[in-house]
Amino acid sequence: MSEQNDRLRQQLVGGLLRQLHLDVMSQRFNPRLVLALFNLVNGGLSIALIAIVALITQQSFIFPSLGATAFLLFHLPLAEAASPRNVLSGHVIGALCGWAALWVCGLHDAPAAFLTGVEWPRVVAAGLSLGFTSALMILFRVAHPPAGATSLIVSLGLMHELQQLPVLISAVALLVAQAFIINRVAGIPYPLWRSRKQQD
């Protein structure tokens, strides 16, 4: 599996360098260094663009679990967990489970746990949100580990308002669109919706 991932990473870097007519870099420098540079530029640029959207709109387009999603999208773009289906569905499930846990525990209007500290209702909300997120991702076959962080972001009260959830999902969709473009330019057959493994 690790050998296959290494080949995919080399294909990713090599494809991008060929598209940009920079293939000499992959011959002159260590492929791991080139891959690290690829992730530095693309992961950083993608998150910066989303942060710019957040700055312009003054909406919560940027949140911590996007960083982990960006890493998957640019480091392992052909992994099942990085497919658009898994990324979008996973974050939707995580956000909805986090929001539902807030309501079940009566915390929908409560300030964030980082402001007030963690009390028993918040413990229950966090446990419920992550437990249900994990179970539903497995049941629907849309595993995306960063979505677990999204469920906690919501259940801990960082994004507790229902109107924030469409913004959250829009940010994820924007990141997926960027990954699609960048990976396709690099010559990687990043899927439109499902990974090849999911289609088999």
Automatic annotation (TrEMBL):
<protein>
    <recommendedName>
        <fullName>HPP transmembrane region domain-containing protein</fullName>
    </recommendedName>
</protein>
<feature type="transmembrane region" description="Helical">
    <location>
        <begin position="61"/>
        <end position="79"/>
    </location>
</feature>
<keyword id="KW-1133">Transmembrane helix</keyword>
<feature type="transmembrane region" description="Helical">
    <location>
        <begin position="124"/>
        <end position="144"/>
    </location>
</feature>
<feature type="transmembrane region" description="Helical">
    <location>
        <begin position="165"/>
        <end position="186"/>
    </location>
</feature>
<dbReference type="InterPro" id="IPR007065">
    <property type="entry name" value="HPP"/>
</dbReference>
<dbReference type="Pfam" id="PF04982">
    <property type="entry name" value="TM_HPP"/>
</dbReference>
<keyword id="KW-0812">Transmembrane</keyword>
<feature type="domain" description="HPP transmembrane region">
    <location>
        <begin position="32"/>
        <end position="191"/>
    </location>
</feature>
<keyword id="KW-0472">Membrane</keyword>
<feature type="transmembrane region" description="Helical">
    <location>
        <begin position="33"/>
        <end position="55"/>
    </location>
</feature>
<dbReference type="InterPro" id="IPR058581">
    <property type="entry name" value="TM_HPP"/>
</dbReference>
<feature type="transmembrane region" description="Helical">
    <location>
        <begin position="86"/>
        <end position="104"/>
    </location>
</feature>
